[in-house]
Amino acid sequence: MEPKHYRFENLAPELNTKMFEDHWKLYEGYVERLNETMEKLANPYDPQRMRSASTASGEWRDIENDKTSLTNAVVLHELFFENILMPPHSAPMPIGPMFQSMIQEHFPTVKYTDFWSHIVKPTAKAARGWCIVGWDTIQAKLDVTMMDGDFGPCVVGLYPLLVIDCSEHAYAQQYGIDKGTYLDHIARSLNYSIMEHRVATIHSASELMRTAIPEQAEDYVRDMYHDNEKDFGFPDKDSYNEQGLPPSTGLDSRNEMSVSPNPRVQSSVEDGAITQADLQEAYDRVRSLAAVTFKSEDDMFDSEVRGKSSEFKEALWDRLREED
User: Fold this and answer.
1) What total number of domains does the chain contain?
2) Rounded CA gap, 276 and 83, in Å?
3) Which of the ends of the chain has fewer CB neighbours closer than 10 A, N or C?
4) Residue 263: which domain range?
C-alpha cells in the first residue's frame, strides 16, 4: 500500500502546519513497516514460522502483533487527518444534521452543543493514544471510547466516525504539555462533512445487512418454500415484498421465522401418541430447516421434541440417525 497525502494548509489557523507535516512522516513510516510485515505473511506455508507459534515469544507472535498495531496506526492516522482537514478557506463547521441526530438519540442527557466539551474532550484528555467517537455495530449505539496505543484495547465492532490523535507526538511540538489547548484547536478544525459521510456509510451498511442475503441463498430458500406445500415455518407467499424477500426487522429475523413451530403440526400429537405421519413431518421439517438456517439438526430436533413424549423423542432420533 502507498501512504496517502494531505494538504495540511487546510487546518484551523491555530494549528501548526509543520507539526502535522512531521506527524505525516511518522504515519509514512507506519505504512512502510506495515508493508514489510505483510510481505513476511505472504507465504502462509513457512514451516519455520509455524513452528515458532507460542504465547511466550516467537516470530509468529511478533509478526501478528506488528500486523495489528501497524494496521491500527495506519488506519487511525488516515481517519484522523481526514476529519481535521477542512475545505480550503473554510470557517469552523457546525455539527452535521445526521451526526447531531445520533448524539441527541444516544446521549439524551447532553445537549449536542455540549457533546464535545462534556464527553469527547474529557475522554481525549484521558487517552494516551486515541479518542474515537464511533458507532457500535454490535450494540447499535453511538459510543465515545479511547485507546492507549495503536495496539488497543478497543471496543469490538466499533466503526470510527471521529478520530483524534491524543499521543504526545501529535501535540507536544507546538503545545508542550498543554493538551487541553491542542484539543480546543482541534475542535475548531473538525470537518463535519467527513463525519456526515461516515454516518451515511453506517446507515447504508445497516440497511444492506438488514435486508440482504446472497442471491443464491435467497433462491434456495424460495425454492424450498415453493417445493414444499406443507407449511414448515416460512411466511406465506403473500407476505413477500416487492423485491421477493420476506419481511425483516433484524439480521436474524428470517432465521427466527424459519424455525418457528408450526401450531397445526404441533397439535397433531396429543397424549404421547405416535404416528408414522407425525414422525415423517417432524423428520422432513428437521432436514429442511437445517439446510436453510444457521441452526444444526440437533437444534431442530430439540425444537421438534419439546413437550412430546420420550417415545416420540426416541423414535425421531432413531429416524434421523438412520439417514446419517
Assistant:
1) 2
2) 67
3) C
4) 213-322
Same domain, yes or no, for 222 and 205? Answer: no
Torsion of CA 136, 142, 144, 145, to 10 degrees: -10
Residues 49 and 180 placed together within one structural domain of the fold: yes
> How far is 196 from 305, CA to CA, in rounded Å?
51
> Rounded to 5 degrees, what angle do the CA atoms 164, 168, 173 make?
105
User: Based on the number of CB atoms within 10 Å of its own CB, is 320 exposed (0-12), middle (13-18) or buried (19 or more)?
Assistant: buried
Are 304 and 282 contacting, i.e. CB atoms less than 8 angstroms apart? yes
The grid coordinates listed for 166 are: 491524543
CA–CA separation, 293 vs 254, rounded Å?
Answer: 9
Judgement on whether residues 170 and 31 belong to the same structural domain of the protein: yes
pLDDT tens by residue, 170-194: 999 999 999 999 999 999 999 999 9
Report yes or no on 2 lying in a domain: no
Task: Please answer whether residues 93 and 113 qualify as being in contact, where contact means their C-beta atoms are separated by less than 8 angstroms.
Answer: no
Let me know whether 160 and 279 are in one domain.
no
Alpha-carbon gap, residue 143 to 160, rounded angstroms:
10
Indicate if 172 and 229 belong to the same structural domain.
no
Residue 265 CA: distances (Å) to CA of 68, 282, 316, 323: 52, 8, 15, 22
Q: pTM, whole model, 2 decimals?
A: 0.64
